[in-house]
């Protein structure tokens, strides 16, 4: 395992950071939560963030935190899908196809919520007023976020991005065959 | 990528944080007037982010135009590979041909089409695919190894230059004297084509014993040789050894379980053993794979003949002859008429 500074990865995959923050913002908008500041990308840690009000319902906190997981995954898969077969299956991809794969992988690999997102959820879960069912869902989500964060040391985020970009079209083919 | 909340704010003023309006919305964490709250909910997305999104969307739309063709190509390839793994090479060839139609330069589709064509004994198809990828760089791996192995065997089915010179001296391969064959094979013992032609000539003259010997010599070099297995599957039946004939047919069916000629040859051996139902089942399966195959229809006529169903026999035979009786199939139909007229054994 070779070491590449995180900031280099972030710079290289900046489209994913932008989409990640945009996903937080869109979830805030859908839940009518006021947003005070959005940094879509900056070349330092954190590479992006959304400053918003604490939502009225705790489950909304979870949804806003994990929103990028769904948006980045779906968008990454959609973007890479037309290019995945020429690049990964037929070995005849053109420049546009490789560009789409780069975008798809970049976006999908930033699907995992950050530990900062997890801390927002933890804070909400620790409050007395949080319903039991939100805690049941929330704690495993927090656990998964930390597992994902730990996995990023072993390129789990990149592996996930590649799997989404290359795997889904091939899975569709396999299911349809 | 941190998400920050403002509920950590130390002091909560009684006026709107943004505009100072004292008419703030109650029971919410941050003091904002209704107007500023709505504006914050609809926090504007900057133009450059919108342009960035539009750029990606445009790229996706352009790529989506090619997606149906890519999916169709991928599906035909996957379905062909699945059929190939089950040794269903007629089905596989159909899918690979479709894939090549969609992208004639696709090396993987052409390589698979070569394999399927070979196992369907379709050497013209094999050659056509080989020509399409002749100047292409092929990925090293198991697929290329298989193609190369079959390409080496390909020569077994075509005359060498030296044998062509001999063949041209006679009207047909059957007219080449045995002594010429023997002399040539002694000098060129690796020339399977010459051995095959000699074996075929002996079979035509009903010299089954010598034909079988040569076929076994061929099989010692190429255990998958269709021509030799085909001759043995046929000869053994005429030698009244239908069990043995079935064994050779099964060798071919193992390699390609959709090969009509092998299944029909087996059906004919079954007819010899009076196992009519099994023969009928086999022929019907063949017809399902390819209802235009003259050998299948001729065999079906033979099954009806054995079942003493003259009406169906004649209907199938007349229909098949009307549609498919060309120079290539004339011998097939002639044999059926000879069996019906007791000129030839089954």
Plain-language structure description:
Chain A has 177 residues and is mainly alpha-helical. Chain A has helices at 6-12, 14-30, 58-89, 95-109, 115-126, 132-151, 156-176; strands at residues 35-39, 49-52. Chain A has a two-stranded antiparallel ribbon with strand order 1-2. Chain A is globular. Chain B is mainly alpha-helical. Chain B has helices spanning 34-41, 47-85, 89-102, 107-119, 123-132, 142-154, 161-167, 178-187, 192-204, 208-221, 226-238, 242-255, 260-272, 276-289, 294-306, 310-324, 330-340, and one strand at 2-5. In chain B, helix 13 (260-272) runs parallel beside helix 15 and helix 14 runs antiparallel to helix 15 (294-306). Chain B is elongated, with a radius of gyration of 35 Å. The model of chain B is unreliable at 1-10 (pLDDT under 50). Chains A and B meet through helix 2, strand 1, strand 2, helix 3 and helix 4 of A and strand 1, helix 1 and helix 2 of B. Strand 2 (49-52) of chain A pairs parallel with strand 1 of chain B.
Instruction: Give the biggest sheet of chain B.
Output: none
Largest interface: A-B, 57 and 44 residues
Strand content of chain B: under 5%
Oligomeric state, counting identical vs distinct chains: heterodimer
Q: Give the H and E element order of chain B.
A: EHHHHHHHHHHHHHHHHH
The low-pLDDT segments of chain B are 1-10
Order of strands across the main sheet of chain A: 1-2
Number of helices of chain A: 7
Q: Roughly how much helix do the residues of chain B carry, as a percent range?
A: 55-70%
- Tell me the helix content of chain A: over 70%
- What is the element string of chain A, with H for helices and E for strands? HHEEHHHHH
Question: What would the keywords be for this entry?
Answer:
heterodimer, A: 177 residues
List the helices and strands and how they pair.
The complex is a heterodimer of chains A (177) and B (346).
Chain A lengths: L5 H7 L1 H17 L4 E5 L9 E4 L5 H32 L5 H15 L5 H12 L5 H20 L4 H21 L1
Antiparallel strand pairs in A: 1-2
Helix pairs in contact in A: 2-3, 2-4, 3-4, 3-5, 3-7, 4-7, 5-6
Chain B lengths: L1 E4 L28 H8 L5 H39 L3 H14 L4 H13 L3 H10 L9 H13 L6 H7 L10 H10 L4 H13 L3 H14 L4 H13 L3 H14 L4 H13 L3 H14 L4 H13 L3 H15 L5 H11 L6
Helix pairs in contact in B: 2-3, 2-4, 3-4, 4-5, 4-6, 9-10, 9-11, 10-11, 11-12, 11-13, 12-13, 13-14, 13-15, 14-15, 15-16, 15-17
């Amino acid at each position: 395992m070779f070491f590449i500074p995180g900031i280099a990865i972030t710079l290289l995959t900046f489209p994913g950071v932008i989409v990640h923050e945009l996903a937080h913002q869109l979830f805030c908008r859908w839940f009518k939560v006021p947003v005070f500041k959005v940094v879509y990308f900056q070349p330092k840690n954190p590479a992006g963030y959304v400053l918003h009000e604490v939502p009225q319902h705790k489950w909304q906190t979870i949804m806003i935190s994990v929103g990028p997981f769904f948006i980045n995954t779906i968008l990454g898969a959609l973007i890479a899908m037309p290019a995945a077969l020429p690049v990964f299956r037929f070995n005849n991809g053109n420049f546009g196809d490789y560009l789409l794969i780069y975008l798809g992988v970049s976006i999908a690999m930033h699907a995992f919520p950050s530990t900062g997102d997890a801390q927002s959820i933890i804070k909400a879960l620790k409050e007395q007023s949080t319903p039991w069912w939100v805690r049941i869902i929330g704690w495993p989500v927090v656990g998964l976020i930390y597992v994902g964060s730990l996995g990023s040391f072993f390129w789990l985020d990149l592996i996930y991005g590649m799997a989404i970009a290359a795997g889904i079209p091939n899975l569709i083919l396999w299911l349809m065959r | 990528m941190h998400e920050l909340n403002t509920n950590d704010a130390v002091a909560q003023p009684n006026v709107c944080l943004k505009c100072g309006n004292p008419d703030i919305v109650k029971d919410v964490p941050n003091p904002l007037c209704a107007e500023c709250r709505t504006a914050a909910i609809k926090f504007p997305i900057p133009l450059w982010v919108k342009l960035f999104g539009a750029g990606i969307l445009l790229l996706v739309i352009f790529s989506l135009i090619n997606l149906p063709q890519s999916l169709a190509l991928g599906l035909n390839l996957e379905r062909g590979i699945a059929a190939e793994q089950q040794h269903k090479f007629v089905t596989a060839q159909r899918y690979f041909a479709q894939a090549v139609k969609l992208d004639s330069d696709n090396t993987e589709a052409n390589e698979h089409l070569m394999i399927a064509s070979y196992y369907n004994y379709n050497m013209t198809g094999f050659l056509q695919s080989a020509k399409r990828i002749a100047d292409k760089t092929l990925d090293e791996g198991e697929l290329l190894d298989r193609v190369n192995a079959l390409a080496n065997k390909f020569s077994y089915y075509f005359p060498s230059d030296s044998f062509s010179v001999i063949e041209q001296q006679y009207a047909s391969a059957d007219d080449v004297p045995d002594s010429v064959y023997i002399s040539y094979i002694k000098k060129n013992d690796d020339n399977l084509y010459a051995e095959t032609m000699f074996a075929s000539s002996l079979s035509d003259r009903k010299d089954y014993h010598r034909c079988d010997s040569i076929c076994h010599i061929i099989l010692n070099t190429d255990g998958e040789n269709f021509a030799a297995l085909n001759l043995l599957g046929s000869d053994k039946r005429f030698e009244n050894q239908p069990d043995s004939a079935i064994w050779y047919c099964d060798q071919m069916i193992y390699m390609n379980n959709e090969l009509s000629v092998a299944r029909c040859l087996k059906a004919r051996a079954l007819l010899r053993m009076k196992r009519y139902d099994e023969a009928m089942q086999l022929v019907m399966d063949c017809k399902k794979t390819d209802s235009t195959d003259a050998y299948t229809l001729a065999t079906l006529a033979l099954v009806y003949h054995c079942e003493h169903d003259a009406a169906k026999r004649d209907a199938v035979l007349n229909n098949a002859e009307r549609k498919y009786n060309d120079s290539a199939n004339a011998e097939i139909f002639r044999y059926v008429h000879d069996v019906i007229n007791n000129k030839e054994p089954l």
